[in-house]
Amino acid sequence: MSTSDDQAAFLRQLEEHRGIVSSVAFAYCRDRGAREDVVQSISAELWRAYPRYDGRVAFSTWMYRVAVNAAISYYRRQTRERSGLIDPADFESLPAASEDDGDVARRTTLYRLIDGLDELERALILLYLDGNNHAEIADVLGISQTNVATKISRIKQSLRRSVASDVADD
Amino acid sequence: MELDDFKSVWTQQTALLESSRRLNELLVREHTIERAIPAMKRLGREIAWQVSLLFVVVVALGSFAADHLTERGVALSAALVGLYALAIAQGEIRQLVAIRDLNFDESVVPLAQKLERLRVLRIRTTKLALLFAPIMWVPIVAVLGRVLFGVDLYALLSPVYIITNIALGLALIPTAVFVANRWSERLGRSKLLRAIGGEITGTNLRDALAFLDTLKRFEESA
Q1: Which of residues 76-105 of B touch A (CB under 8 A)?
Q2: Is residue B187 within 8 Å of residue B167, measured between CB atoms?
Q3: ipTM for this model
Q4: For chain B, which end, N or C, has fewer CB atoms within 10 Å of the first or last residue's CB respectively?
């Protein structure tokens, strides 16, 4: 296959799984400028890694791996340079046109949940929210399925506790 | 409220991003790879240059020491500077080997571990170079004096003068650590100074080791 065929095939697959890049970028950065940097960084790594893609894993799994690795690298570099965690006030939300009060509350809680997670737990939760099963998550992260199940269960418990505490405060 | 309740909000949010034209442009821009040279590749090239330069220095110093065996002070200085350069070179060669082993399509946790071990290696090499620099300047000046001006500084200067300078160099190491610790906040405006301060005080190393520990726990806990 020629280089232009390769590029065309790559762009086709990229277009098909474009949502992966969006959700990974969104999990690590909600500030628009920074998010574009993350997307740029992910795109560069995808282009660079594509010649090595041999089809042994699903294209989506491969894409998640590259995207999460690039996003974590970016995130760690940024937090080091800022000497601390990214300020949640910098985050931008994207209200949907048809959103009601319940959606707004869920969105706020979701942001708070994500902000409280470290870079690895963020990867885990974004894979879960994107609808991947435990085997797929384990494959992307390089940990066991049992470990994935345990961690998701812990995050769920922590979320329940946090919601219960909010209700008690109100 | 359960985690699964958030799936629809998440899907809605990422769909909004996905439909953004800007994101699409960024994704399919074919020259992205040419514009954004991956940081690791760039770092690898810089290190390769430094290693080549260090090897030239080591060979030149070895040859210089062999030619000046009768001038013990100068020959010993050349040997010391050569050892210093070799110590830095071995750290950089290990970094080069580590960089060659990096692929962004690996699973997330193993790659994050490799990247952080590489960072630890880089911090330790920089720390070695920075901390020994204050006491290495005497032998470096002795070699340069002989090479550039044909002067043997050990014959020219009194031993007390030389020992005092070495002692001052030694005293500079804890002073640098103290200054970096005391004024680390004020270094905050300059990225480079903050990075150097972090390397001297060990903050960067502690941060890297802590992340390695987090990765290990993330991998093990079940």
Answers
A1: 103-105
A2: no
A3: 0.78
A4: C
